[in-house]
């Protein structure tokens, strides 16, 4: 029952060596061209991001998105849309880590759980800026090489595509088939 008895094989494969998740709320201050009277709408679009391993237990996600705010001004007689490009850096801690990865050549996968979206948009108390609260959430995975030990079948069984899997229809099953199960109106 050891590697020397040839009952086990070591296989080198890629596997998830780390996982993490982070939820972020951020506040942005947008300066429109005119003093806003009221907020008519706010959208967060054009989200772009990339991720890289920063340290043994952290992934760095760098990204950007556009905040579009539709607002009225001049005592609610005119409207305008102001757009501001925002950049961010999120540090996602790895809550699960496998120290058995063989080298430092990792692949980093980051997936958006919650696309950046507007939670709240209001005129600042000074009245010349708009305050926008945005939320976003990521999950990250670190993929690396690791070693897996598998037990070898002592009889040396190998899989053959022509093996009979026993999926033939029996006479009993064939007897249960009802040839007129299709309704006559469906026969066309």
Written account of the structure:
The chain is mostly beta strands. The protein has one domain (3-151). Helix content is 3%, strand content 63%. It is built from one helix and six strands, in the order ββββββα. It has one helix spanning 171-175; strands at residues 8-30, 36-55, 58-73, 78-97, 107-123, 130-151. It has a six-stranded antiparallel beta sheet, with no helix packed on it. Strand 3 and strand 4 form a beta hairpin. The longest helix is centred in the C-terminal third of the chain and has 5 residues, at 171-175. The N and C termini lie far apart (64 Å).
Put simply, the count of helices is 1
Please summarize the sheet with the most strands.
6 strands, antiparallel
Structural class: mainly beta
- Domain count, please report it: 1
How large is the share of residues in beta strands?
Answer: over 45%
The gyration radius over C-alpha positions equals 30 Å
Uncertain segments of ≥5 residues (pLDDT<50)?
none
Q: Helical amount among residues, as a percent range?
A: under 10%
How are helices and strands ordered from N to C? EEEEEEH
Task: Give average pLDDT, whole number.
Answer: 86
Describe the strand arrangement of the main beta sheet, using strand numbers.
Answer: 2-3-4-1-6-5
Shape: elongated
Distance between the termini: 64 Å
Kindly state the number of beta strands: 6
């Amino acid at each position: 029952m050891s590697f020397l008895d040839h009952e086990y094989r070591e296989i080198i494969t890629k596997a998830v060596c780390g996982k993490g998740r982070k939820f972020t709320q951020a506040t942005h201050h947008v300066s429109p061209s005119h003093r806003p009277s009221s907020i008519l709408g706010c959208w967060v679009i054009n989200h772009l991001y990339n991720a890289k391993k920063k340290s043994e237990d952290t992934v760095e996600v760098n990204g950007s998105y556009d905040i579009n705010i539709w607002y009225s001004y001049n005592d609610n007689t005119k409207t305008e849309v102001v757009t501001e490009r925002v950049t961010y850096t999120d540090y996602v801690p790895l809550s699960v880590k496998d120290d058995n990865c063989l080298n430092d050549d990792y692949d980093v996968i980051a997936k958006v759980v919650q696309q950046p979206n507007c939670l709240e948009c209001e005129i600042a108390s000074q009245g010349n800026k708009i305050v926008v609260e945005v939320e976003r959430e990521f999950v990250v995975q670190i993929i690396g090489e690791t070693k897996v030990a598998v037990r070898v079948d002592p009889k040396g069984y190998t899989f053959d595509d022509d093996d009979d899997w026993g999926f033939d229809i029996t006479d009993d099953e064939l007897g249960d088939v009802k040839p007129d199960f299709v309704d006559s109106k469906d026969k066309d």
